[in-house]
């Protein structure tokens, strides 16, 4: 059983201390040199950061996970994204009906002793009709033999685990499993370099006739399980946005200390973003209280909140850059880093265009995301 995480917001003081002492000195190297903050992530796990949403608490657990991620995101979005990957992996395990897998690995993931990620970007886009499922499995005795390539999966390394979905020819429903980097047939390689989020250990995953044992299966068929976990999967991403917006506001305030007189002429000032942040936090906290609801009446405001989080991130980071002026254009400036990070909030799955597509489906009365329709097809 995962140890119960504290719910008192005052507990963030210890997390903030850890961010200041262990993370902030590394932010420049994470952003510019692609340093993966593995030791910091493990310390976060020791402090209980990855356990908030998997303790069995109703309501507050998921919001605490989001709020804790936001504390990290105030300083560094790369690390906040790695926190989200770890949280998503724990979320899969905590909701799986595979009790043996859950009981053996969830305590390790929640404590940061086992690091992991999520390979659901490709299948989420596939269910939306934007992509096709890249992994294919063949049923054999005791499991599946799986082959394919996932181009970008984050928070990975030797021995790390990640959730992935593969199709099975001749079957309608897909299968979701937990794969391990380095197991026979599963290899990783860094094939791309990015303008931001370089320190997230984002790699290509090559799966070549890997045997995925039944003991590794999170859900079969995957679709009903995905419907159950998708609200939490999306809501957790709000932690990155909330932290980035708060960090951008801090950068604006810092710029005002020396350039407040001229910054006063800018159309979007810190107060605007602080009010938007308070509203967004309240909305996300309310949605996080019931993360297993999944009808259109719930998913529509959830998707709208995630879209608003991306939009406000872009606006806040842009305003921070304008407040900083020429100093924000320096290579190591906080303002330009926050701007590059904000674009990630807007393009990570589900991206702004993906969210708008799903909201359009609801608006036109076509149901709540194509994924929901796959349940009936999967039988």
UniProtKB/TrEMBL annotation:
Q: Which organism is it from?
A: Azospirillum brasilense
Ranges of residues in domain Acyl-CoA dehydrogenase/oxidase N-terminal: 14-112
Establish whether keyword Cell division is in the entry: no
Q: Which Pfam families match?
A: Acyl-CoA_dh_N
Which protein is depicted? Acyl-CoA dehydrogenase
Would you say which domain of life the source belongs to?
Bacteria
| Keywords, alphabetical | Plasmid
- Molecular function GO labels: acyl-CoA dehydrogenase activity; flavin adenine dinucleotide binding
**Record-linked InterPro entries:** Acyl-CoA_Oxase/DH_mid-dom_sf (IPR046373), AcylCo_DH-like_C (IPR036250), AcylCoA_DH/ox_N (IPR013786), AcylCoA_DH/ox_N_sf (IPR037069), AcylCoA_DH/oxidase_NM_dom_sf (IPR009100)
């Amino acid at each position: 059983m995962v140890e119960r995480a504290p719910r008192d917001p005052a507990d963030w003081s210890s997390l903030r201390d850890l961010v200041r002492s262990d993370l902030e000195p590394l932010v420049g190297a994470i952003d510019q040199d692609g340093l993966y903050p593995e030791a910091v992530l493990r310390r976060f796990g020791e402090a209980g950061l990855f356990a908030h949403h998997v303790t069995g608490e109703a309501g507050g657990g998921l919001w605490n996970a989001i709020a804790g991620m936001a504390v990290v995101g105030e300083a560094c979005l790369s690390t906040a994204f790695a926190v989200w990957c770890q949280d998503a992996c724990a979320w899969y395990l905590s909701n799986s009906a595979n009790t043996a897998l859950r009981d053996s690995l969830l305590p390790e993931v929640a404590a940061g002793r086992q690091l992991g990620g999520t390979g659901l970007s490709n299948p989420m886009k596939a269910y939306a009709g934007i992509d096709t499922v890249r992994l294919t499995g063949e049923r054999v005795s005791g499991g599946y033999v799986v082959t394919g390539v996932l181009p970008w999966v984050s928070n990975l390394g030797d021995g790390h685990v990640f959730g992935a979905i593969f199709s099975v020819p001749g079957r309608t429903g897909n299968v979701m499993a937990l794969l391990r980097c380095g197991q026979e047939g599963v290899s990783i390689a860094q094939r791309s370099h990015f303008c931001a989020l370089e320190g997230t250990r984002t790699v290509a995953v090559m799966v070549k006739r890997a045997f995925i044992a039944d003991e590794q299966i999170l859900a079969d068929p995957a679709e009903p399980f995905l419907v159950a976990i998708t609200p939490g999967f999306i809501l957790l991403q709000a932690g990155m946005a909330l932290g980035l917006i708060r960090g951008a506001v801090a950068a604006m305030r810092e710029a005002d200390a020396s350039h407040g007189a001229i910054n006063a002429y800018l159309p979007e000032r810190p107060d605007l973003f602080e009010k938007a942040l308070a509203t967004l936090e309240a909305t996300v906290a309310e949605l996080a209280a019931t993360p297993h609801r999944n009808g259109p009446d719930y998913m529509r405001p959830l998707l709208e909140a995630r879209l608003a989080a991306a939009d406000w991130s872009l606006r806040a980071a842009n305003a921070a850059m304008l407040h900083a002026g020429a100093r924000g254009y320096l290579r190591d400036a906080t303002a330009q880093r926050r701007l590059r990070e904000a674009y990630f909030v807007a393009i990570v799955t589900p991206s702004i265009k993906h969210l708008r597509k799903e909201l359009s489906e609801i608006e036109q009365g076509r149901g709540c995301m194509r994924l929901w329709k796959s349940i009936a097809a999967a039988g």
